[in-house]
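Next up, a chain.

===
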Amino acid sequence: MKKTLRISITLVLYAATILLVSQQAALAQDHAAKIQEVLTLAHKYRQFNGSALVAENGKVIYKGGFGLANMEWNIPNTPDTKFRLGSITKQFTSMLTLQLVEQGKIKLDGKISDYLPDYRKDIGEKVTVHHLLTHTSGIPSYTGQPGFFANVSRNPYKVSDFVKQYTSGNLEFEPGTKYAYNNSGYFLLGAIIERVTGKSYEQALKEMIFDKVGMKDTGYDLHDPLLQKRASGYAKTATGYTNAPYLDMSIPYAAGSLYSTVEDLYLWDQVLYTDKLLTPQSKELLYKPFLQDYAYGWIVTNASFKVKEQSIPVITHGGGINGFTTTIVRFPNEKHLVVILDNTGSPNLNRLGQNIAKILYDQPYDLPKMSIAAVVEKTISEKGPVAAVAEYRELKAKQAATYDFAEPELNALGYRLMARGKMKEAIEIFKLNVEAYPKGFNTYDSLAEAYMNMNERELAIQNFKKSLELNPKNTSAVENLKKLETPK
């Protein structure tokens, strides 16, 4: 009797396990189908052209490619297409830094001058490695220098020469007192890594991270070597695409020089749950948020949605570099992962990633809509900004459900116009966005920046102040106001 009972219980448990596994499989399939629908629509509306991978509870449930990796040869994007990562590079630089801290070669409270003795002493003896990692150094970011991309970014530089010429400016604030996103800081970290290891940044990455993880499709994206399945970068226009402006990859360096695939970034995500690269104590430091939720190469915060009134921790970072935008979103409690890599500079990857995350958590999500910015941009090119503004207002009144009227739409368009030197058109678009989102601090900040570039000083000051009124933590507005209000 007892043996029969044990067999019965075993059969019941086995049946329950089979049922649970089948339910989980069915749920994963449902999630994958919804993700496919979202990405398909995003591609249809020219909001996504690239590759994506989604993992649920540590297991890949979706991966796919959309559009073309090379538009001139009609080569499609696939999960093993290699994309430039932009600032996702920073999490690899921070990993190298902490590995060297564990080896005793770098100290987090060590000063720049401890490792780069030729660096200017007045700043080098004040700024620490911790400040560089957390964007709190006060050193000006080289990518924010006027005319940098137009005049400098195509030229190759030795690390030491670039450090001296472009990452050694006067402090904008006292180190540790403020947060200001800063590519100079991570460039300097790369220089420090090279100095203490005696190896190139590229070699140190390969030996200390990529080889250990098995990331065979990840590396430093140099122009000269032949690289199989490398995506070309494109810039979106009103009617199609153009090749993205050339960028010498010695410029982004340890702040943004890497390439990878969605599949390799899944391997990266998985190894971060182990102690293979760092001790638990160092990983705790890696993910400890400081000012503006920025940790060491990662933003550590909570998701934009809650589940049963509970916040969902998220570890994330995005990237943007000529022709490419990227995002990696990790949910450590459930081991969920969303990776999206795009080779057309699409500005909507964060929203796309958020909607995919909502699918994983069975939360309400939005399907992509047609881009209102694409319509407005086309009308500007054909009929001018006055006609475009009128069309925007009419479509918003009559077809709000058809088009995407979110704040970033016009904001991204305004910056595209600025990049092409169409400053008057950009100002009209930023003004329209302020009209549509009068409580959005970023709309005023963008309009102020356009006025500043047009040397409309009083209008720039007025709009930066309005932006600060709406968001006192807008550090870029504070710094720009200082520049504008300082007598020359």
Notes: The first helix runs from residue 2 to 44. The chain has two domains: 84-360, 370-485. The CA atoms of residues 16 and 65 lie 36 Å apart.
